[in-house]
Amino acid sequence: MIQDGYIKISTELQQLITADQAWHYQIIPKSSTNSTLLFYVDNSINDDSLKDELELLFGKTIELERIDSDIISKSLGKYYRKKKSSINSRASVYSEKSDDFLINLINEANDIGSSDIHIETYEERCRVRMRIDGKLVERYVLNKDDYPSIINKIKIKANLDIAEKRLPQDGRIFFNTEDQKFDIRVSVLPTLYGEKVVLRLLSKDATDIDIEYLGMTQEQIANYNEGIRKPHGIILISGPTGSGKTTTLYATLKILNKEHSNIVTIEDPIEYTLEGINQVQLKESIGLTFASALRTFLRQDPDVIMLGEIRDGETAKMAVRAALTGHLVLSTIHTNSAWGTISRLIDMGVPPFLIASTLNLSVAQRLVRLLCPLCKEKVSFDSTLYPRNFKAPTNIEKHFIAKGCDDCYYTGYKGRKAVYEIIPIDHELADNIKLKNIDENEIVEVNNFKSLSDSAFELFALGETSIEEIYSILINS
Q1: How far is CA 282 from CA 184, 193, 230, 253, 287, in A?
Q2: What's the CA gap between 107 and 175, in Å, rounded?
Q3: Angle formed by the axes of helices 452-461 and 467-474, to 10°?
Q4: Separation between Cα atoms, residue 230 and residue 274, nearest integer Å
């Protein structure tokens, strides 16, 4: 079936051939039986030996259906992403029984920029999905009979109990090949039809992260830099899981990482590595929690302390105590907005006067996918596309929509950018916190702070993203 200029195929058909084979022969699978494989082939290829070569390669009768070159090109771009490292053996990639299957799966995920691999089972099928630019994409369908052996191989590599199938388990794999080294966090969850595994690719080198290129405006960068250069106090970054908080924290640590500073971090997991910083992995099973690590940190003569997350009242109070005793504390917290962080800390039992005297900056952020610059299309804008209660600050007559091309694998998007809401806590705002005068809309409006929705709308107005991508941010404005 042809849709939007490309051939629509199932994951089962897609995994019959590798990306190398698809691009080399310019073929797309159409159907498969026990004895026959039918491929779409570029109609500009007139090589009579192609059929014989494919029959020799796959050991089946091959039938070819010629189709327009543009359709083949679009379909190859959508379904068969070109990878940096070539995978040579067809069996090693697509046979779940192969010892190399897991290694090649991780290599592929890393090559195409995936952050997570989901291996999951249902009543009649098993599949592998990869998260790319924040969205899950189905990559493979696995044989139901072979699924348990794949899970056991992962458990063995992560030093988990292969006999335990009733309880969740967490582990870690250190992935080390000739080309690359990184850590993988492993989470195993018992579900109705078997165990689901999520592999998160971690420990990227943080040396290339730069605060200037994350998405802050010049005014926001100025406010942020002023807040982090204070010798003591708390910097809090809020946002949901996967919104780039850790990347912002490490861009900050990179600025603060000087020879004369002692920086210690406690994280779960350690997602980046940075030379010159003392990083500690959280281990709650043996009592190494955020709060207990923070107590030890205070005896380590630190200048800067980074807590991966403030999850409870005890950790929040310890962070405030550390800031009061002359340390700069950086952490993340789960709230919907920068000013909402204040209410969250009060709910955790931190007295408002202590928040007022220690909080330097409150930051909220979200990640937004950017439209592919090569294929985005400019069209007339209809204001009914906005959320019902949203009032646009400026009138938009034209906007860009996602189309899709070979360069963006026909998703219409390429890369992501963070949008920020940054509130520097001055004397006036500190007085408001002490008096529990924390009406968010009034604070943001009176002080002319750029909210998350303002930042997202600005990105949309500049034509860098689509209305669909920022809709969820605008709806909460």
Answers
A1: 15, 31, 27, 19, 9
A2: 10
A3: 160
A4: 22
Query: Which stretches of the chain score pLDDT less than 50?
Result: 84-97
Q: What is the pTM of this model?
A: 0.80
The 3-state DSSP class for residue 33 equals: coil
pLDDT tens track for 296-326: 999 999 999 999 999 999 999 999 999 999 9
Task: Tell me 464's DSSP state.
Answer: S
Per DSSP, 178 falls in state S
Instruction: Check residue 203 and give its pLDDT.
Output: 61
Per-residue confidence (pLDDT) for residue 445, from 0 to 100 = 67
Helix (H), strand (E) at residue 195: strand 194-201
For residue 421, the model assigns a pLDDT of 94
Q: Check if the beta carbon of residue 186 is closer than 8 Å to that of residue 197.
A: yes
Q: What is the DSSP track for 55-100?
A: HHHHSSEEEEEEE-HHHHHHHHHHHS---SS----HHHHH-TTSTT
First to last CA, the chain: 41
* Residue 305, H or E segment: strand 304-307
Distance CA 44, CA 110 (A): 34
